[in-house]
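Here we describe the complex-level prediction in full. Unlike the single-chain runs in Section 2.1, the two entities below were treated as one system.
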Amino acid sequence: MLKYFVMTCEALLTAAILTGACMGYASAHYRKTGKPIVLIGALLGVLGAGVMAFLKNATKLIDTSLWNMRNFIAAAIILVLFFVASALRRPLKTAGEYIPPCLLALLPALVIFYALPDVLAYPYVILLTEKSVLSTNFLLKTIGIILGICMCLLVVVAVYHGMRRMRNPFGFVFLTLLLLANTARQVTAVLRIMLTKRMIASNHTLFAIAKFSSNHENWFTFAAILIALVIPVILLIQNAKITETYHNPAEHRKLRKKQRMARTWSGVIMACMVFSILNLTGIKAYANREIELSPVEDSLIEDGNVVVTFEQVEDGHLHRFAYTSDDGVKIRFIVIKKPNSSAYGIGLDACDICGETGYYEKDGQVVCNLCDVVMNINTIGFKGGCNPIVIPYNISNGKIYVPIDGLLEYEKEFK
Amino acid sequence: MKKKMIGIALIAAMALSVTACGNTNNESSTTAEAPETTAADTTAAADSETEAEKTEAEVKTDALAPGDDDAAGFTEYPIFEDEEVGFLNVSAVYFQPVPMSGGNENTEDFNIHLEADVSALENNLGFGVGDWVPYMTVDYKIIASSGDTAAEGSFMVMSASDGPHYGANVKLPDADTYSIEFTFHSPEENGYLLHTDAETGPGGSFEEYFKDGNLKVTYEGWDYVPQEW
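The structure predicted for the assembly as a whole is:
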C-alpha cells in the first residue's frame, strides 16, 4: 500500500502543484474567466488521461515516448504563447480576458495528460500479478493509489488558495518559476527521447546532459516543491498585519478573516510540501526497503552431505540452510514441506534469472526477493522460470541429505 | 513591438522543430550510426571481430503476428547488431518490460526487456543459416562505467510475436554508458544431441565450437537512458 501511495504521489505531485498554481493565478488575475477556464482545462486533461490509459494498456497503438515528446513540445509552445498573450492583454481588450487563461488552461491539461495515465493503469499492472480484484493485496495497493490521489488533490486545492491570495508581482513570479522548472524537465526529457529514438545523433555532451537529467530527474520535482514552499512564506509576510484601510468594525472583521484564511492556507501548503519531501525521501526509502531474508538455520555435516532432519522442516514454512565453502562463500538452499503432501521442495536459494537474491515466505507463499514472483510451492525442486535452481539431494531415515559437491557447483552464484 | 517580434520568432522556431520531429516520426524506422563497438571473444577461439567497428543500427518497429493488423507493433531499441562468434550471429535489443507466462507477469520492478537474438551462421551442426539456435543457456552481464555490475543473470527462453529468443526483464534504472556481455553455453549442456553417423549426421560436433569454453560476446559503449514506456 505504502509503495503505491509513494508512487502515485511521485507521479502526480508536479502536475498537482502546477494545476493549483495555474488555477490560483488565473482566478486572481482573470477574475471573471480564469478559474472556470483552467478548471475545464484540468478536467479535459483528466479525461484525456483516461483515454490514454485505456489505449496504452488495451491496444498497441501508443508509443508513449513519442506522445510524451509531442506533449512536451506543445507545452513549450503554449508557454511562450501564454507569455506573449499576457503581455498583450490590454491591446487585445476583450480577447485579452480569454486568450491568456485559455492558453494557461492547456498547461495543466497537458501535464495531467502526461502524468495521470500511468497512475490510472496501476490497477491493471497490479492485476497482472495479483490475478483477482478480490485479493487483499489488490485492495491494499488500490487504497494506496486512492490515498495518493487524495493527497495530490489536497495539494491542488492548497496551492490554488495560496496562489489566489498572493499579491503581485509574486503571483506571476512564482507561476513563471514553476512553469520554467517544469519546462526544463520537459526539454531534457525531449532530448532523451530524441537520443534514444536516434532522431538526433548522439555525442558526448548531449549524452552527458541526458544521463545527468535522467539520473537526477527527482531534482525537478524537488525544485517545484521548494518553489511552492516559498508561497506560504510570502503569504505569511504579506498577511502579518492588516495594511488595508477600513472604515468600520465590519470591514475590519472582513480583513481579519481574509488574513486568517491566508495564514490557514499557508499552513496547509507548508504541511503538504514538507510531507511531500518526507514522502519522496524517507517514506519512499522505507517503502522500497529490501526484505531481510530469514536467518540460515543450523544443520549437520555428515559424510560429505549437509543434513537436515524432517523435524526441522515439517511445519510447512520456508527454511533456509547453508554450506560455507573453503573460500568463505555461503551457498544457501531452501527446504519447504509441500502442502497436503509428505514431499519436500528443495532448491538453491537462488535462481537462474535473479541470481542469489533469495526467497522469502509471505502469507504462506514463497516469493522471489528480486522480482516478487510468487512460486508455486509444488513446483519447487523443478527446473524453469524463476524457480530455485535444482540441486541434488537424497532422503532417507527421516533426513534430507544434500551433497556438498552438488552445492559447490553453484558457489559462483553466491558472492 | 520588439517583444511581439521576439515572440513571433520564438513561435516560428518551435513550430519548425515540431514539424521536423513530425517528419521523422512518420517513418517507421530511423537510421542512425551507432557508436564505435568492440566485440571481443575472451574465452573461446571464436571468430568475433576484435577491432572496433562501425555498425549501423536501427530503432525499428517489430513485425507483427499474422492477422494482427490493428496494431502498430512494438519498437525495438538496438544495442548492437550482427556480432559473430563461433557459429552464432548475435544481436541485442531492448524494449519495454513485458509480462510473461509461468508466473513471470510482474513488470513493475523492471525497466527494460533485454533480448539476445541468436541465429546460426554457416555451420556443420545441422542448423540452417539464419535459424534460431535453441537449447543454449545464455548468461548476460551489464557492467556500469564505474566497473560495477549493474545487472546479471541467465536469459529465459520465450517466444514473442516475432519469434523465439533468449530474453529477460531487467532492472536498469540508471542512465550510463554500459558494457554488455553475453555468454553462450553449448546446447549440448541442456541435452541437445547431434546425429553422429555418416549417413544422417550433420558432420560436425559442438566440441569444435566450444573446445575453448563458452562463447562470449562483449559490447562496450552502450549509451543507455531509461525510458517511460
